[in-house]
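TASK: fixed-backbone design
INPUT:
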C-alpha cells in the first residue's frame, strides 16, 4: 500500500506544478462580468447616450438653417484680426476638433490646450475651468479674445453686412441685419446671434461607436462569439481595472467617459508657468458674464438657472479642471489643460504615483498597479477610438 500512496503524492505535486506553470504562461482570461459590472459597462456604452439636451436659452439651437450658418462662421478666417484664424484653425475636424499642439496658437500663443468638441453639447460648463455656462456664450469668448481670433463685434457685424449670403442666412433666422453704422445694443444682439448659430452647429458634433462599444453591444446581446473576438485579454483586463481597482470611472463615467465635473488631480503646471487655479475662480466670472443664463440675451426669460446660482465653489476646487471625455483619447495627444503631458503611458504613471498637488488638494490616490496592469489600462484606453457619428457634410468647411 506504500507504493500507490507515494505515486499519488508525486502525481499531486506534478499536477500542481504543471498547472502553476500553465497559469503563469497563459493566465486565465478575465472572468465573466457580474450583473452590476454589466450595468456599469452599459452606462459607458455609446448606446446609452441620450439625445443632446435641449438649450432653451438658444431659440435656434436645433434649427438646421442655424447650424448651416454656424458652420460657415466656424470655418471663416475672416472673423479674426489677421484674416487667418477661424474656430477650425484650432478645432480641426480631421483631428477630432483638436490641433495636436500643447497650447493653442491663434493670433498669438495661448496658455491652454485646445479641447475636443465631440459631445460638448452635453456639458453644462465650457472651458477647462467651466467659466461659461452655455455653448453660445462660450463661442463669443474666442472671437474677441486677444490671443485667439483677436477681433471685435463691430468688425464681425460689418463682415456679415458685406456678405450677401450671410445677410440672407441671418435674415431668415433672426431679423434683417442693422444698417451700419449702428449703436451698441444692435451690434451686440447680432454678435450674440452669431454665437447661437455656432452653437447650433456644435450641437451636431457627437462621438460614434468604438471597438469598446461593439464589445458591450455584443455582450448585452449575449452574442458570445462576437464579444469574445472584440477585445483582447489585455484590453479586457484594462477595462476591469478602469471600472474597478484603478477607479478611473469615479470621474470618467457615462457614455462620454466624463462626469463634466471639476477635479484636482495634481497635474503639474506647464514648464515655467504658474499653476492654474482652475475652477475656483471661474464661478465668479460666469456670474459676472453678461451672456450667462440669467442675462438678458438668454431666450428663456423664465429659466431659474439653478445650476449657475447654486454652482459649487470653495477651496476644494482650487486647481480643479474639467474632466475631459476619454473617447478617441489615443488620437488626441498632447493632454491636460496646458498640454503638459504627451502620452497615455505618462498619464497612467502619474495616476499610479498620485503625487501631491502644487496648489489645492489632489483627489487622486496612489494606485500601486503593476507595470503589466498599467499597460493593460493603456490598451483599454486605445479601444475607445472611433469616427464621429456626425454626418461628413458637417466635418469640413461648407
Ligand atoms: C487659438 C485656438 C482656438 C480658437 C481659434 C478657438 N478655440 Fe475653442 N478652445 C481653444 C482652447 C485653448 C480651449 C480651452 C481654453 C480654456 O479652457 O481656457 C477651447 C475651448 C473651447 C470650447 C469648450 C469645450 C469644453 O469642453 O468645455 C468650445 C465649445 C470651443 N472652444 C469652441 C470654439 C469656437 C466655437 C470657436 C470659434 C468661435 C473657437 N473655439 C475658437 C482653442 C481655440
Ligand atoms: C478625481 C477624478 C478623476 C479620476 C479618478 C481620474 N481622472 Fe483622468 N482626468 C480627470 C481630470 C480633472 C482631468 C484633466 C486634468 C487637467 O487637465 O488638469 C483628467 C485627464 C485625464 C486624461 C487626459 C485626457 C485629455 O484629453 O487631456 C486621461 C487620459 C485620463 N484622465 C485618464 C484617466 C485614467 C486612466 C484614470 C484611472 C487611472 C483616471 N483618468 C482617473 C479626472 C479624473
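OUTPUT:
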Amino acid at each position: 500500500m506504500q507504493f500507490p500512496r507515494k505515486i499519488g503524492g508525486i502525481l499531486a505535486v506534478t499536477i500542481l506544478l504543471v498547472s502553476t506553470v500553465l497559469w503563469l504562461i497563459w493566465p486565465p482570461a478575465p472572468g465573466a462580468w457580474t450583473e452590476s459590472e454589466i450595468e456599469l459597462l452599459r452606462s459607458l456604452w455609446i448606446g446609452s447616450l441620450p439625445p443632446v439636451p435641449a438649450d432653451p436659452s438658444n431659440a435656434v439651437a436645433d434649427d438646421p438653417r442655424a447650424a448651416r450658418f454656424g458652420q460657415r462662421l466656424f470655418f471663416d478666417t475672416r472673423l479674426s484680426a489677421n484674416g487667418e484664424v477661424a474656430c477650425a484653425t484650432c478645432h480641426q475636424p480631421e483631428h477630432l476638433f483638436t490641433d495636436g499642439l500643447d497650447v493653442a496658437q491663434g493670433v498669438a500663443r495661448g496658455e491652454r490646450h485646445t479641447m475636443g468638441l465631440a459631445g460638448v453639447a452635453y456639458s453644462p460648463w465650457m472651458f477647462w475651468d467651466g467659466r461659461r455656462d452655455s455653448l453660445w456664450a462660450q463661442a463669443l469668448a474666442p472671437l474677441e479674445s486677444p490671443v485667439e481670433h483677436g477681433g471685435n463685434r463691430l468688425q464681425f457685424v460689418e463682415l456679415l453686412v458685406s456678405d450677401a449670403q450671410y445677410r440672407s442666412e441671418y435674415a431668415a433666422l433672426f431679423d434683417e441685419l442693422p444698417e451700419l453704422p449702428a449703436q451698441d445694443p444692435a451690434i451686440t444682439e447680432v454678435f450674440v446671434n452669431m454665437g447661437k448659430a455656432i452653437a447650433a452647429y456644435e450641437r451636431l458634433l457627437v462621438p460614434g461607436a468604438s471597438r469598446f462599444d461593439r464589445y458591450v453591444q455584443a455582450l448585452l446581446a449575449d452574442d458570445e462569439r462576437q464579444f469574445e473576438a472584440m477585445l483582447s485579454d489585455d484590453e479586457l483586463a484594462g477595462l476591469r481595472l478602469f471600472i474597478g481597482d484603478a477607479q478611473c470611472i469615479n470621474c470618467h463615467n457615462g457614455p462620454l467617459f466624463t462626469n463634466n465635473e471639476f477635479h484636482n488631480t495634481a497635474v503639474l503646471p506647464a514648464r515655467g508657468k504658474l499653476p492654474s487655479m482652475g475652477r475656483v475662480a471661474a464661478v465668479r466670472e460666469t456670474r459676472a458674464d453678461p451672456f450667462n443664463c440669467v442675462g438678458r440675451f438668454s431666450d428663456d426669460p423664465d429659466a431659474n438657472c439653478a445650476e449657475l446660482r447654486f454652482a459649487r465653489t470653495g477651496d476644494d476646487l482650487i486647481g480643479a479642471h474639467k474632466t475631459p471625455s476619454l473617447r478617441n483619447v489615443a488620437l488626441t495627444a498632447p493632454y491636460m489643460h496646458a498640454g503638459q503631458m504627451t502620452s497615455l503611458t505618462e498619464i497612467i504613471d502619474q495616476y499610479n504615483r498620485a503625487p501631491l498637488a502644487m496648489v489645492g488638494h489632489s483627489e487622486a490616490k496612489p494606485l500601486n498597479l503593476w507595470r503589466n496592469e498599467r499597460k493593460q489600462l493603456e490598451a483599454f484606453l486605445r479601444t475607445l477610438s472611433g469616427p464621429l457619428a456626425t454626418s461628413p457634410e458637417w466635418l469640413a468647411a461648407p
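COMMENT: The pocket of heme C (ligand 2) is lined by residues 246-248, 250-252, 263, 265, 267, 321, 323-324, 326, 329, 332, 335-337, 344, 347-348, 351, 363-364, 377 (CB under 6 Å).
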